Amino acid sequence: MGDVIYAACGLAPLSWLLQFGTAYAFAHFTLSGRTRRAVGRNIAAITGDDPSSATVRRLVWQAIKTHHVRNVQLLLAPRTVPRLRQLLPIEGRGHLDAALAQGRGAILMGAHINSVVELMGVMALRELGYDVRTALPGEGARFAPTKARAIVNRLTNTAAFAELTGAMFAQFNVRPIVNALAAKQIVFMMGDGWHSASFVDVQFAGRTVPITTGALSVAALCGAPVVPMFAVGTAPDRLRIVLEPAFSVEKGSPNTDLAQKAQLFATQVERHVRANLSAWQHCFVEDVFGSMASWRDRSLRDRYSIQT
User: Fold this and answer.
1) Cβ burial, residue 290 (10 Å; 0-12/13-18/19+)
2) Alpha-carbon distance 187 to 175, whole Å?
3) What is the DSSP string of the chain?
């Protein structure tokens, strides 16, 4: 079905193709009680509402719909690159320009709020002339096209997903990231993921939770400024990229500034989560706050696995 949708892009209105995501979301919402309950519990933990309330149930449907529609948008992203400036407005580019003026490259630090849309934002920034690289895990070719999509790419002169995002498969090898920053490029990394060797505690939604330090540690190591990047709004037609003011991380041991900047980022994430609850991808985790609390107690093997 994905191959059919991909091939149909340009032959049928984009709004028609996105209806496949809505239809799949309706089936998922209707048939998967486990998903509904998990998403409802996690959203209620933020709002303070009863998980069975009408408000939470409405947000659960919006979350599941947004999840599947934006996945279709991501699927079609290579075919819609020329239209990304109109489909995905970018606010706050001046913050990125100011960071780059320091001459040390920059780290775009994303969050799991419409995070797949942030990859579309990377494509849009590259179309605008920004030399953005995306640090992706190195376990195989991420987002590799199927044989059918590869044929469509050749027939339509469409670049592969990895090429459009400037992907570099770093896994937990920091060298490609450091080299990119040394070349004054921009590196996109996630700031609130769970796959990390180290964490610091932050306050988030009235709880003390651990947050990863990978991107911030690289910033301290290289002196590169950090520009928080959020994909806000709901799919399909209310999405936009918001770039926040840049900050730097001082190098030190123990690095108290890193912990302070982690809290700053966590506060920004919470603000955007509360304003975009249906776009928060972590709400699909069975017990998001329990998982966050236990993550650093897991083995390094578990933490490094992108499948967990």
Assistant:
1) exposed
2) 12
3) -HHHHHHHBTTB-HHHHHHHHHHHHHHHHHH-HHHHHHHHHHHHHHH---TTSHHHHHHHHHHHHHHHHHHHHHHHHHHHGGGHHHHS-EE-HHHHHHHHTTSS-EEEEE-SBSHHHHHHHHHHHHHTT--EEEEE--SS-TTPPPHHHHHHHHHHTPPPHHHHHTEEE-TT--HHHHHHHHTT-EEEEESS-S--S-EEEEEETTEEEEEE-HHHHHHHHHT--EEEEEEES-TTTS-EEEEPPPB-----SS-HHHHHHHHHHHHHHHHHHHHTGGGBGGGGSTTHHHHHHHGGGS-HHHHH-TT-
What pLDDT is stored for residue 307 in this prediction? 58
Q: What is the pLDDT of residues 178-189, one digit of tens each?
A: 999 999 999 999
- Give the residue among 45, 35, 40, 42 at the shortest CA–CA distance from 57: 40
Closest CA to 59 of 38, 32, 74, 78: 38
- The sign one gets for the Cα dihedral 267, 230, 57, 33 is negative
Phi-psi region of 257 (alpha: psi -120 to 50; beta: other; left: phi over 0): alpha
Percentage with pLDDT > 90 across the chain: 76
pLDDT exceeds cutoff 90 at 72: yes
Q: Half-sphere exposure (CA, 13 Å, Cβ side) for 33?
A: 1
* Terminal C-alpha separation, the chain: 26
User: What is residue 253's predicted lDDT score, i.e. its pLDDT?
Assistant: 67
Spatial distance between the Cα atoms of 244 and 252, rounded to a whole number of angstroms? 25
Residues 242-254 have pLDDT tens digits of 999 999 999 876 7
- Smallest CA-to-CA distance from 241 within 302, 188, 185, 204 is with 188
User: Which comes out higher in pLDDT, residue 128 or 136?
Assistant: 128
Cis check for the bond before 254: say yes or no (omega within 30 of 0).
Answer: yes
